[in-house]
């Protein structure tokens, strides 16, 4: 007991000293510094809004077709006496080239017969003229004879009245007068028919002349010539073959120009004709109306052909718009024209635009000024803007144009404003931002948005 009591007496002072030291240290030590909670800025990539000119563009694919085609269809029947040796599929023939010549024997005989008929009819007409002269002379004689008969009848009538002439003499004189009058009447009737006979004969000559003209035309039609320089696409004739009227002997594709009907969405085509401002008239997407006004629009077209790693391009022009819209796909055909489709060909570098090639047609409208942004920067119709104090602003924006990977804004954004192109997480409007300019993206947008 005594040893335990001694231990307690020795431990208690030591514990009291330790507690006192700790209390003194705590009492004399300064209070810890208080740190205020600060807002943390979220790092985002931004670009500077810069006005750029952008050309609205629409493109589609289609097959090349010749702008002009020709079917060599004979208008007469005959045996092929001559066939152009170059009339072979793939060959190119010049304008006016003789393609096929048919036998002209039948049509030469028809011309000779028509000429003979004309000569016979003209001779008949001359005969009528001679007959008319003879009848006129005979009628003059009969008129004089009738006058004598009338004088004789008048003399007999006076004698009969005086009682010196018999009734039979009177009757004979009257009968002679009436007979002569009948002869004169017959001659007058014959002369009256002559104008009608001449008219009939004149018309018959006209018929024969028309027959002659037809025969001469048919003779000319025995030769089939090419109306323009073209490439042979089909041949169906040989020397000695009977060629029938209305049956094609060859078909040709013009080489002066080519056409491509590229199918594009109707909505994309509509934006090419969209006015730059509300003051300009709106052009309705009506094929006939578009065709009337598109010639006055500043539209540029190009045609591209991919040949392995090589891209060949031709300048083109919008010729017309197809008259129908596909109800299933909602696409409309824009028909572009490439002039000098063959003459601009270069061996080993630029092939001619040949029928059946699958090419891409692109149409550019006049440039529009606006702010170019990445298409992905628009979220549910809102654009993220960094305010002057680096706060996030969600601004409703309706883009004027969206094509490929860019969007063009013509209203709602000013030059120099900072556009956020990366999405902060979490996305809270008014949050503090740490801005990091994306110069690479700005250069890419400048190239993509530059007007062609």
TrEMBL record:
Gene3D superfamilies listed in its UniProt record: 2.40.30.170, 2.40.420.20, 2.40.50.100, Helix hairpin bin
Residues forming coiled coils: 104-131
Cellular component, GO annotation: efflux pump complex
GO molecular function: efflux transmembrane transporter activity
Name this polypeptide is given: Efflux RND transporter periplasmic adaptor subunit
Transmembrane portions of the chain: 7-27
Transmembrane keyword on record: yes
Record's keyword terms, sorted: Coiled coil, Membrane, Transmembrane, Transmembrane helix
Source domain of life: Bacteria
Lineage: Bacteria, Pseudomonadati, Pseudomonadota, Alphaproteobacteria, Rhodobacterales
